[in-house]
Here is the input.
Amino acid sequence: MNNGNPSHVGRRRGRTGSEGGPPPGSHRAGARGSSYSGKRRAGPALPFAVPLPGRLGDVRFNKLHLAVAGAVSLVVAVGVSIVLGNLPEEASGSGGEEHAALLYADGQALPADFADTHPALAAGVHAELAARYGLDPDELYDAAARPDGPRVVLTLDRALQEAAEETSGEAGVVAVEPGTGAVRCYYGAEAETGADQLGPDAPHPPSSVFDMVTAATALEAGASLESWWSDAEADVTLVQAVRESRTAAMDAVAAEYGVAEVLETAGAMGLTAIADDEGVLRDVAAGDFDGLDAAGLGSYPVSVVDMAGVYATIAADGVHADTHFIERVVDGEGRTVEPAQGIRTDQAIAETTAQDLQFTGLGESEAIEDRDFFGVAADFHGETTQSWFVGAIPQLSVAAWANGSAASEGGVPLWRNVIDTAIEVNDYEAEELPGASGAGDDLTDGIADEDGRIDPDSEYCQANPDIEGCTEAESPSESPTETEQEEETSEEPEPEPDPTTSSEEEPDPPTTSSEEETTTEDCGWPWC
Here is the structure.
């Protein structure tokens, strides 16, 4: 089922008045690097081989043969023990983890300069390490000082991280696994910009990307996708408002339920912070919403990693899991160290709400072939043009953001590069999204006037001509009784002429004064 193309829709221009940006359909996938083939590495081959005879019957044994065989066996055994003792370190330990402080999810060591080139990400890992495991960086493995120190296996997928780091310019991309909250890749363009562009310290206006949260609020409150809302140009359904980035309609939805309710929904789905007009970060969990306006929810900056988590919640049928970077910690012998604090998961929104949001953002195959996905593209035109694309397949949620010259092609190429790599490397099967749930009420409060009446010329009445509100609104000043009397009167036959009088001698109707015309008591004519 393919309704709407998120590589085309969701571009909010009304808030800034700019009509800039590339034409729809101009996006192309980023080039895939050749540094990783996607194939699993084969285990190391043993550097020796023992030839065997073609047929066992060709071998004849005597005492000399047995003595020689025993000596050879001893030599072979010693050789095997030496070889096994010198196998690469990735084969040691219960999980095959290499000996390094920080490791990819597959147990291979991160580049030695990773902490220097990704300082914000390294700081996030260390903060999580302290909160969940009570460990400091100076307690981790060090070949010289702490050879038995614990090692940290991150959630980062090596192939996806390499694909993400192909990004150039002022742009970043992050992938979060639905249902687990594991961050599978994270590249915030720190080398290009001097700051991490994905985290809470560098939030960006989300524009139409935030509309999915506003829609979720309405759905959670009992509205259906077919509820109607007034837009500046036309009345539209909720699903149309999101797909077509109808700014006025989405602002009306947010105003109907209020900033607090929308942001509480956002917090349940994974939003941790939002910045106000002054750039001050507000803690969503603390309910710090004073001064925020419903009409500004698309312009208040949020982090890219948070929006990846929000869309991961939608992809996981409404289940939210805390976003995290640490898969596990192992001690010097490769045994898993249990954390003091696990990863919290909960049903943030109803499954039907998530299902309807997936349907709302359902994309077409020209953005990604042969599988269902959902997403929203958006541009924000401020001092520079910022471009977003946030979307997911059931197995992975990816948020891409670009600014300035890097935004000329939008966020789709960055998103595609990570999604395509993930599908290829991890053999993700195509899964069909279920479609709209049909839950909720088809509300019309958003298009009715103060007296509850709907404009008979509205798009709603054109789509629903037999609805009671539309038929009554067509002639509100008419009295049904008067209408029926007029219809009955107009059908009465004229009186027969007097048979004693010919048609030529028939008298003219009597004339009356204006006062008499207003009196019907003595009038024998049918039109009185």
About this structure: The longest strand covers residues 385-393.
